[in-house]
Amino acid sequence: MIEQLVIDSLIEVEQPIGKYYIAKIDANDLLKISCSDERKFNEELEEYLGTQRELNKSKINSIKEYIKTSDATFPNTIIGTLVGDNYSVIIENDKIKRIIVNIDTENEYERPFRIIDGQHRLYSFKDENIEKFDLLVAIFVDASINDQAYIFSVINTTQTKLNPSLLQDLTALSKVTTPEQVVNAITRKFNNEEGPLYKKIKMLGKKDKTSPEGIISQYTFSKPIINYIYNPKDAKKIRESLIRNGNNRKDLSNNLYKNKIFWKYYNNIEQKQIYLMLLAYFTSMSEIFKNEWGNEKYILCKTTGYTAFMNLFSDFYCLAKGNLDFLTDKNYYRPIFSTIKEKIDFSEDAFRLGEMGARNLYNTLKEIFENNR
Q: Which of 6, 63, 111, 268 could form a disulfide with 124 if both were Cys (CB 3.0 to 4.6 A apart)?
């Protein structure tokens, strides 16, 4: 007897392209009836067939980690169309009320539900022991290959990439004190209180009432500080650990990122020390580089200069062997900064902008540091 999946409680949606149906389907059940229609060259027909991009294993593995977390969710729909003969529809009062799909566990390509969008989300459940995870599914019935290609292309070319500064700022709303949330609080303190960066950090990536003198985005400002705490690739793992241990950072191993200079301060809930070290550092910079600091004609507070000087901070930290008496004193940095000021032109024309420029500038700063430490 052929195994079947019954899809009911359908919501009919009518739009200019035609009708489709919204349903709730368990991820494991959806996998049994689905196939990914990857676009590739068919040697027999000598033409390209399919509408989907190649499955990205790295992306799937990343989503696999996410779906195992305590608060995983996919509120957006998996989109696909039923094709072929392995399904039937039950119609009542001229409307589809139920869809019955034959399950083919052997031949994936014969499965009737062709994915148009969401294949990486769906295939992340493959070979995972997740008992229950409902997915919202938008089901077209026998959509033409033209419509499938059009829907896929529209979805994947009209999405606007989110501003990374906005994403960083939203961490303030979380109840979980991740490294990103802690750095967001530090960033707010720098931007909101009198000091070297008062109203100079574009919290949402653009100038507004909180940053009328904005010269650097929150994302650019936060990135190196976060990288001094931990590896952001582990964000899901650390967040899940915090959720499971009641948001207690001290339960995280102090040796987890022992090569990261700010990890122990985050781990021991001593982020104030991170702020005080950076306050001394930036205050010293603003006093030594009076003309260049906050001046858009110079790269000092732009991505290139900021990234290079944040890299140099680790050299100061290692020289002081983590001694907070030195690191929180602005005068500790003055001699080196004074020498740097004498030897480097920070105008935009002096260094190439971007990652390469930041790397070249840091190498120059490092050489001066080593010769004058």
A: 63
Which residue, 28, 22, 27, is CA-closest to 9?
Answer: 22
What is the band of 50 on the pLDDT scale with cuts at 50, 70, 90? Answer: low
Joined tokens for residue 356: 């390469």
Instruction: Indicate whether 318 pLDDT > 90.
Output: yes
Q: What is the pLDDT of residue 173?
A: 85
Q: Which residues contact 52 (CB under 8 A, 6 or more apart)?
A: 36, 37, 38, 39, 115, 116, 119, 152
189 and 142, same structural domain? no
Q: Give the Cα separation of 223 and 179 in Å (integer).
A: 11
pLDDT tens-digit readout, 75-97 = 999 999 998 888 999 999 888 99
Residues 149 and 171 in one domain: no
Confidence (pLDDT) at 308 = 94
The crossing angle, in degrees rounded to 10, of helices 303-319 and 355-372 is: 30
Of 24, 13, 126, 7, the C-alpha closest to 75 is 24
pLDDT of residue 257: 93
* Same domain flag for 291 and 337: yes
As for how many domains the chain has, the answer is 2
Helix 179-192 × helix 271-288 angle, to 10°? 40
Q: What is the pTM of this model?
A: 0.80
Are 170 and 311 contained in the same domain? yes
Q: What is the SS3 assignment for 179? A: helix
Q: Are residues 194 and 330 in the same domain?
A: yes
260 in Cβ contact with 322 (< 8 Å): no
pLDDT of residue 302: 87
Q: Which domain holds residue 136?
A: 4-157
